[in-house]
Amino acid sequence: MAIAGDLIHTRSTTPSVRAYRGSMTASIQPDPSFATYLRDIADAVSGDEVECPTFVDASLGARLALKDPNLSVTQVTKVVAGEPLLSARVVAYANSAAIHRGGKPVTDVKTAVMRIGQNAVRNIAVALALRQVGHAKELEPFRPQAREILEHGQEVAVLAHVLALHHGKVAPDDALFAGLVHDLGHFYALWRATQFPELVSRPQEVRSLAHDCHAALGAALLRSLKLTDAIILAVSEHEHDPAQLEPGSFSQILCVANRCANTPVVQGSETAGGPTPGSTADGGLDEEAAHALLAEHFDDVTWLLAAIKG
Known about the structure:
This protein has 310 residues and is mostly helical. The chain has two domains: 4-46, no CATH class; 54-309, Hypothetical protein af1432. 64% of the residues lie in helices and 0% in strands. Helix 4 runs antiparallel to helix 8 (118-134), helix 9 (143-166) crosses helix 17 (298-309) and helix 11 packs across helix 13 (203-224). The longest helix has 24 residues, at 143-166.
């Protein structure tokens, strides 16, 4: 049922919007609610920015401010200390085996912030904020899907961090952050669907439609939240073929981490005679090479995932 020309009005003809327009046209169901929903999503994707839902901004917006390089340790400490759960997680992270290399354990927030650094504090805060988003009452009709998206984001974040740490051109903390927020568009798409009672009763179809547009939606949301161009680009490209992305780039790291999250990382799973862990012929990444690298650093994957999940 081709209704894109009649009902879906976009304000841009960029490749991502054209690709999204085509995919959702193929997915459209003969239902007025779906048509309205898709038109609204198309408008959001094609605009320069998308209005961030209040429940997302309230949870995530303030946490993003922790990235401000002008904040002092004292200011960051004050923000962390104001939230008991965040304080506990930051101190626990500072005392984790991978961070704490002997000596006296950290018992106060300020020392923990100094030990792990501002970027790590931001990532822990964002992970907690996204947990609040995933459990928000606004997403109640799609609770199982929201939980799945949340858990997937945590795993992608960890894998991206480890891949960037051992292979790539991006800071590991930034890769972890991008992994956490890469599916933010999914939450937005589910939230918009809750405003149509007819769609709430068809969760699998909504989930499929949300998948078609989530990368472009996520990029638009992150643009509204004033994130950097590099992170926005990586999020917009995380469903691309990694072979088509710049070797070792932010986008390729996130893309491969997203693909690797679909299959478990098993310690010692690299095969004899296979690729050098983490590398392809052009110095980039693909799933096979990335899995070999992740298996080699299985302990890092395990402890970091535990730290992020809490």
